[in-house]
Amino acid sequence: MNPITPADQTVAEPRAPEETITASILSAVAEHRLPAGTKLGEQALSDLFSCHRSNVRRALTSLAAQHVIEIRPHRGAFVATPSPREAREVFEARRTVERTLARLAIPHAGAADIAQMRAMIAEEAEARAGGDKPAELRLSRAFHMKIAEIAGNGVLGQFLAELTLRTTLILGLYGDASASSCARDDHGPIVDALEAGEEARLVALVDEHLAHLEAGLDFERGASRPMTLAEQLSPGTGI
């Protein structure tokens, strides 16, 4: 199974090769197909996306600015490997951002928004039951981003987009790979509170949900052996 492919895009076809590369790597990271520590070789990516290495470098620079990859001097680019301290700081930042977004979303949440979020929850449950981890992760992240969309604060929404990606890396590195990221039905009560306009309850539920995710981390687990991009792209290799 190829962890990253040029088809990994959820919106209109990006115009420049570096945008295609960036979108594909973000998608692969978000779905745990590209784990922390994976080396991203310039030539391998250039060959995969049929582009010049300068396009690859621009994509890697953009991803590094989003804290999705790390560029190590004389070694190259690797998918970021968050430390335990960084993991705690990311969750602390998420709590701060998501509390505010939840409050902002209350006066703007309409019937169509609530219906869409309930549909997301149903799809997420279906993916979990079917063992489709990439789809489950994608839908879980989309749920949180939907709240940001409803809230209507683009700056905070950008912060959350980065934080949710970094959370995905953290869960892949320190979480139980066999467990669901949302084993309990955390999202359902959040929608109920949003629909009812119960601010205090909504904020408490968001806090509880993030605490549940953070509590499942095992910092003694440590990073597994980093896999090369060639290993990730070998036929039959999966995550």
Briefly, what CATH class of the largest domain? Mainly Alpha
The CATH superfamily of the largest domain bears the name GntR ligand-binding domain-like
Name given to the CATH architecture of the largest domain? Up-down Bundle
Q: What is the H/E order?
A: HEHHEEHHHHHHH
Q: What's the overall average pLDDT, rounded?
A: 86
Bin the helical content: 55-70%
**What's the total helix number?**
10
> How many strand elements?
3
State the major sheet: 3 strands, antiparallel
Low-confidence stretches: 7-11, 233-239
Radius of gyration: 18 Å
**How would the global form be characterised?**
globular
Structural category is: mainly alpha
Residues in β-strands, percent: under 5%
Order of the strands making up the biggest sheet: 1-3-2
Describe this structure in words.
- The structure is a single chain.
- This protein is mainly alpha-helical and 239 residues long.
- It folds into 2 domains: 17-79, Winged helix-like DNA-binding domain superfamily/Winged helix DNA-binding domain (Arc Repressor Mutant, subunit A); 84-222, GntR ligand-binding domain-like (Four Helix Bundle (Hemerythrin (Met), subunit A), Up-down Bundle), CATH 1.20.120.
- Helices cover 62% and strands 4% of the residues.
- It is built from 10 helices and 3 strands; from the N terminus they run H-E-H-H-E-E-H-H-H-H-H-H-H.
- It has helices at residues 17-30, 42-49, 53-65, 84-105, 111-129, 133-151, 154-174, 187-196, 199-215, 229-233, and strands spanning 39-40, 69-72, 76-79.
- The protein has a 3-stranded antiparallel β-sheet with strand order 1-3-2.
- A hairpin with a 3-residue loop joins strand 2 (69-72) and strand 3.
- Helix 1 crosses helix 3 and helix 6 (133-151) packs antiparallel against helix 7 (154-174).
- The radius of gyration is 18 Å and the shape is globular.
